Amino acid sequence: MKNFDDRHISRDHPGHERGWYWRKHRWTVLGLCWALAYLAMGMAWLFGAPLYPYGRHWDPSPVPVSLMDGVSAQVGQVTIVSAAFAAAAALVWLLKAENGNVLAKFSTGGLLAFCLGLVLVGDYRPLMVVARVPVFLVSRVLFGSAEGQVGFGQFLKAMFSVPAMHGFWQLGGILLVLMAVAEFWRRVRGGCEQCGRAEQLSWWSTRQGAQRWGKIAAIIAAFCPLPYALTRYLLVFGVPVDGISRDQIEKANLDAPGIWIFGAGLATFGVLGAVLTLGLFQRWGERWPFWVPVLRGRPIHPMVAVIPAGFVSLLWPGSSLMFVRVNAQKAFSDGGAMSDGVLHLLLSPMNLWIIWGFALAGATFAYWLRRRPDCAYCGRGEHQIRGIWVPAARRPELA
């Protein structure tokens, strides 16, 4: 194999022609399909279709769970239609553009703003589906908690509500749009159609560089859930923390026995997640530990860690911003910047969740950069020669 370069292959070659367009534009096409589907959904809601996912009737909370819950249905529907149409138009332009001109940069900025908007109107309901369902099963069987006293059907209906499913739909859209943007800029800058590598790798994208900054991101992500977990364990033993007084603890124990045990179960999931996050830069995150039957000692496929960690990192930004916003509304509703509510707002361990999602996403991305193999399509990758990482295409065995 001598100086293999996919750009020198003729597009008339049958192996290249098959799937050539799909390889170059697959994420943009998928993102466009998602945007058009969302546009159709918005139009249907605008003309009276049921199951519009926003509104105060979905949640009895005294403050709007989502920012869109606080506006009229007509305003929300027009907003969805307008945003989805703009996103679809921007993605169409990225499909047509052959270079990173001004309009391409404008489209990219619009798509990033669209993703930010979806994060800002997001809420905690998708996160609750992922976190509460397994804890519900355990608490019902072992502890008879307040959540566990609810019937399966009633609980699952409350969890898998229309707003929650709509939240998952939006998270999928964020992923597709971000991948489409990355795919476009990779293409116009000469990256491989298959792996995305450029001819010369930046330091941060090398395995050595990703190991360094990914370790920092993983440590930050592992720390973020620990203060929250500590407060939930203290509440089990009746210690007033996180703005919850002793009277409130006792009243909750009477009204809903076992509720603090349920909270401790959620905290335990956070602690387990923190431990698994450390595996993103440890050796046991690359090979199955000895205590895992059958698989012990075998290499861990990168996607085994990337898919769940990436999915969880998508859940946190919208959820954490919602918690901060709701706490802020409650804090200032009583008036006075010196109120206990404001102090709780400033010291709440949930504030760290904003950092958690982004740190986990960064650590996951670094893990993927470090574990991805050399590309069999273009021959690009990395090979360590005397401590220096160089493109795989320059390796002696490929010459």
UniProtKB/TrEMBL annotation:
<feature type="transmembrane region" description="Helical">
    <location>
        <begin position="216"/>
        <end position="239"/>
    </location>
</feature>
<feature type="transmembrane region" description="Helical">
    <location>
        <begin position="302"/>
        <end position="324"/>
    </location>
</feature>
<protein>
    <submittedName>
        <fullName>Uncharacterized protein</fullName>
    </submittedName>
</protein>
<feature type="transmembrane region" description="Helical">
    <location>
        <begin position="27"/>
        <end position="52"/>
    </location>
</feature>
<feature type="transmembrane region" description="Helical">
    <location>
        <begin position="167"/>
        <end position="185"/>
    </location>
</feature>
<keyword id="KW-1133">Transmembrane helix</keyword>
<feature type="transmembrane region" description="Helical">
    <location>
        <begin position="72"/>
        <end position="95"/>
    </location>
</feature>
<feature type="transmembrane region" description="Helical">
    <location>
        <begin position="102"/>
        <end position="122"/>
    </location>
</feature>
<keyword id="KW-0812">Transmembrane</keyword>
<feature type="transmembrane region" description="Helical">
    <location>
        <begin position="350"/>
        <end position="369"/>
    </location>
</feature>
<keyword id="KW-0472">Membrane</keyword>
<feature type="transmembrane region" description="Helical">
    <location>
        <begin position="259"/>
        <end position="281"/>
    </location>
</feature>
